[in-house]
Amino acid sequence: MAEAYIIAAVRTAGGKRGGKLSGWHPVDLAAKVLDELLDRTGIDPALVEDVIMGCVSQVGEQSTNVARNAVLASKLPESVPGTSVDRQCGSSQQALHFAAQAVMSGSMDVVIAAGVESMTRVPMFTPSALPQKNGLGYYMSPNIRKRYAGVGDFSQFMGAEMIAKKYGLTKDALDQYAYDTHQRAIVATREGLFKEEILPVEVRNADGAGTGELHSADEGIRFDVTKDGIAGVKLLQEGGVITAANASQICDGATGVMVVSEKALKTLGVQPLARIHHMTMIGDDPVIMLEAPIPATMQALSRAGMNIDDIDLFEVNEAFAPVPMAWLQVTGADPARLNVNGGAIALGHPLGASGTKLMTTLVHALKKRGKRYGLQTMCEGGGMANVTIIERL
């Protein structure tokens, strides 16, 4: 079977809500990442055959095919098409899967998989908050409501609470996890471990004018974090265990990877960072919703002929602390290999951009540590999960 290779992976540093990336139109921010991928590889922009871009809230500034708009705002020629993907939080991980599948099928040789989300300018839940009238305009159709009678809305927040209860995860344990992930992110930032993967961008004012300041470090990291501070954050639900401190942060950001065939490697004379070793996608219970990475990981390892100890580093998206904690409990993975540079609780979760964000961090972490195999997975709205296994080259 033909192979697919990653030859470049880059991301912006995460921006807090209303923070240093809030002055950027998401299309222009995504275009900066596309341009950086071209600069890092040095390839002719006209050789790019498609741009596949993850984005969850595809309304307003992120509407009307944000991928194509990012192409038109970039250095890519008009001949390069673009398409936008919504697989909820796994949108840009799915973009990577589509890009790899296009290359492995032999139909394309050079594809960019990317993601963008400005959660400041296009707030979470905006698409589902559009006007409803006389029962019309609700995303849950009559058939879904009949099939899941008594459930109400599918809720990630409730799913997180359900996972914590199912796996016996206390609030103290969740808060400790949140503290630890901040510590890993702090160390990674101070030691410059993100430097190679981050594209510094100029901070812009609300009117879009540049300020001269460069944004080059993840803005959500709390360098003064304390265990007491995390423990003191109010519960999102009375009697629950989930707080804003042990859940992922709202974040603005753009990310991308360039995927090529073996033929393109030789023709372009570029060196690969990693090879796509395996891809899996599953659907699971949409009510508990966030548990899907567990069976998805087990299925991926089985199909790849691997076991959990064969994997050197893991990136499991920290949508909520119970997700990676339950995943660790079931898979038996070594916690020291998980989210080694911190996760979304500290670094932020820019929804549709997080898939290629995690992949970018995974590729560079494997390189820096001299490790071979990496596995990425993330929970997704509706009860789904992607798994990608890569081999560093």
Summarize the model shown.
The protein is of the alpha/beta class and 393 residues long.
Which features does this protein show?
393 residues; 33% helix; globular; Thiolase_C
- End-to-end Cα distance, whole Å, is 18 Å
| Mean residue pLDDT | 96
Q: Could you say which structural class the secondary elements and strand pairing correspond to?
A: alpha/beta
The outline comes out as globular
Low-confidence stretches: none
Give the strand content: 15-25%
The largest sheet, given as strand count, sense and whether it forms a barrel, is: 9 strands, mixed
How big is the Rg? 20 Å
User: In order across it, which strands form the biggest sheet?
Assistant: 3-2-4-7-1-8-11-10-9
Query: What is the tally of beta strands?
Result: 11
Count of individual helical segments: 12
**Roughly how much helix do the residues carry, as a percent range?**
25-40%
Element pattern in H and E:
EHEHEHEHHHEEHEHEHEHHHEE
